[in-house]
Amino acid sequence: RGLGSSASRPREDSWLKSLFVRKVDPRKDAHSNLLAKRETSSLYKLQIHNVKPECLDAYNKLCQEVLPKIHEEKHYPCALVGTWNTWYGEQDQAVHLWRYEGGYPALNEVMSKLRQNKEFTAFRKERGNMLLSRKNQLLLEFSFWNEPVPREGPNIYELRSYQLRPGTMIEWGNYWARAIRFRQDNDEAVGGFFSQIGQLYMVHHLWAYKDLQTREDIRNAAWHKPGWDELVYYTVPLIQEMESRIMIPLKISPLQ
C-alpha cells in the first residue's frame, strides 16, 4: 500500500499542476512586428489632458493658435491627426492624436527641435497652468485598420479604449482582423492602434458618426450580420477594462 500510494503521488501532483499552469505558445517575433503595418513606419502619440474647468475655453484657444504651426512646419516630421474635447466621458478633457512619419527617430527629431522653439516653450508653460493632469501613450497602427486621414464634418468621434489582459494582444488582433469587415459599410472606422509605451496592452479604436443616433443605428445593425456576435463573444474575455469617449473636434482638427 505504501508503494502504491507513493507512486500515485507524483501523478496526482502533475495532474493538479496541469489545471493551473497555462501553456503559452512560443512566439518568434514581437507582437508589434506581427500586428503593425509594415509598409509604413509611422508612430502615433495620444495625448490626454484634463483641464481645469474654468480654463477649457482658454486652453482650446491657445491650442488652436499654436498647434497648427507645428503641424504645418515642413521641418517637423509630424502631423496633427485630430484634436478633440470629450463630450461624454470624463469632462473638461482634451484629446490630441499626432503622427510621426519615420517612427522613433522622427519623434526624437521633433522633440529636440521643439525644445529650441521659444514660442512652443512659452506655450507649454502657459498650457501647464491650465491643466489638472496629463498623460500620453506611443502607439502603432493595426495592419488591418484604416489609416486615419482628414475627413469633412460635421461628425462626432468615439474613442473606445480597451485594457487587455497581458498576453492577449495577438488573439485580439486575429479576431479584429475579421471583425473590422463588419464595420466598414458606413465609413465609420477611422483608425485602430495599440500601445507601445505608456500604459501597455491598451487598444484604441477611433470611430466617426454623424450623431449619437447614427452611432446607435450602425452599432445595432452590426448584430444582424452573421459572424459579428461570435467575434464579440470571443473578444470580450480578453478585456480587463474598457472606456468610451464621445468627442467633438476642435476647428483646427483635420478630422472634422
UniProtKB/TrEMBL annotation:
Keyword terms, alphabetized: Autophagy, Mitochondrion, Transit peptide
Gene Ontology annotations of biological process type: mitophagy
Domain NIPSNAP: 157-254
Localization annotation: Mitochondrion matrix
GO terms for cellular component: mitochondrial matrix
Acyltransferase is among the record's keywords: no
Main location: mitochondrion
Family: Belongs to the NipSnap family.
Name this protein carries in UniProt: Protein NipSnap 2
